[in-house]
User: Which sequence fits this backbone?
C-alpha cells in the first residue's frame, strides 16, 4: 500500500500525472526513515530536518503537518504483517502539478511508501572514489532532494567494479560522502567527518554518531574537509545512514582498515535506536 495525502491506495493502481513536478524537475524532497516494531526511530530529528528542507525550498508547509500528524500517517501505512518488523519508510514531499521551472503553486502533496528492510553488517566492505562527476559543495547539497543523479551514477560504477560503495568528491576534490551514506574517518583518537559546507547530506545517523562520540572522552570529533590522502592513511573508516546504522569499511584500494572503533560505536548506535524510538 501507498499513502497519498492521507489516503491508502494500492501500488498497482497508482500513477503520477505527466505534469508531476518531482518527475519533471526533481522538485521534491524525501526522508528515509526506519520504523522498528511499529515505532518511528529518531522521528523528531527527521521531522525537523524535513521542515527545514521545505522552508529552504520555499514549499508551503500545510498547517496539518505537525509532528504527530505525519508520524500517525507513517504508522497508518505500515501493513499489519510488517507491524513487528523493521521497515524502510520513504516520505516524499513534492510541489503540486503545474508550471514549468516556475511552479503554479507552492502547495505540496505527500507520498509514503513502506517496505520490509533487513540489513546485516558486512564483514568485508570495499570502497573506492567516484571521480567522474563532482558533488558541488553548498547548502543545497545538504538537502535530500529527488535529484540524485550523481548517487545513481556512482552506484552504477560501484556495481561495475565489484565495490560495496563509492565515495563522492566535491569540486575541491575533498571527500563529501558515500553514494548512500555519510562517512567518518579515524586516525588515532581523532575522528573526522566532512563538514556540511563540503556538500554532504545533513544525515540523521551522522548527527547521532557525532553525539555518541562527543560523549566519549577518549575520542575527539571534528567536522572538516577531508582529502582522499587522509582516508588512505586512516586507521578506520565507517559509513552511516538511518537504515544501515553503521557499516565499517574494510578495504579502500590496497588499504585494509581495522574495524574495532567502528564496531564499538555501532553497538552504541543500535542502543540509541532502541532508546530513542518515538
Assistant:
Amino acid at each position: 500500500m501507498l499513502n497519498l495525502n492521507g489516503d491508502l491506495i494500492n501500488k498497482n493502481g497508482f500513477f503520477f500525472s505527466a505534469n508531476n513536478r518531482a518527475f519533471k524537475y526533481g522538485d521534491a524532497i524525501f526522508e528515509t526513515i526506519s520504523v522498528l516494531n511499529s515505532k518511528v526511530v529518531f522521528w523528531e530529528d527527521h521531522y525537523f530536518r524535513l521542515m527545514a528542507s521545505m522552508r529552504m525550498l520555499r514549499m508551503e508547509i500545510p498547517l496539518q503537518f505537525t509532528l504527530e500528524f505525519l508520524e500517525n500517517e507513517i504508522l497508518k501505512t505500515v501493513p499489519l504483517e510488517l507491524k513487528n518488523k523493521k521497515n524502510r519508510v520513504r516520505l516524499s514531499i513534492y510541489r503540486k502539478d503545474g508550471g514549468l521551472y516556475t511552479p503554479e503553486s507552492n502547495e505540496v502533496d505527500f507520498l509514503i511508501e513502506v517496505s520490509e528492510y533487513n540489513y546485516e553488517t558486512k564483514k568485508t566492505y570495499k570502497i573506492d572514489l567516484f571521480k567522474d562527476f563532482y558533488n558541488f559543495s553548498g547548502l543545497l547539497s545538504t538537502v535530500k532532494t529527488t535529484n540524485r543523479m550523481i548517487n545513481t551514477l556512482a552506484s552504477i560504477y560501484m556495481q561495475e567494479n565489484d565495490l560495496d560503495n563509492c565515495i563522492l568528491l566535491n569540486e575541491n576534490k575533498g571527500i563529501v560522502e558515500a553514494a548512500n551514506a555519510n562517512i567518518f574517518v579515524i586516525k588515532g583518537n581523532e575522528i573526522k567527518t566532512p563538514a556540511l559546507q563540503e556538500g554532504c547530506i545533513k544525515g540523521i545517523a551522522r548527527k547521532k554518531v557525532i553525539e555518541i562520540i562527543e560523549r566519549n572522552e577518549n575520542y575527539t570529533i571534528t567536522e572538516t574537509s577531508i582529502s582522499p590522502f587522509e582516508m588512505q592513511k586512516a586507521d578506520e573508516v565507517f559509513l552511516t545512514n538511518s537504515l544501515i546504522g553503521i557499516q565499517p569499511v574494510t578495504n579502500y584500494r590496497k588499504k585494509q582498515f581495522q574495524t574495532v572503533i567502528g564496531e564499538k560505536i555501532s553497538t552504541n548506535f543500535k542502543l540509541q535506536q532502541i532508546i530513542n524510538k518515538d
Summary: Residues 126-275 form a domain with the D-amino Acid Aminotransferase; Chain A, domain 2 fold (CATH 3.20.10.10). The chain has a mean pLDDT of 94. The two ends are 23 Å apart (CA to CA). The CA atoms of residues 191 and 221 lie 5 Å apart.
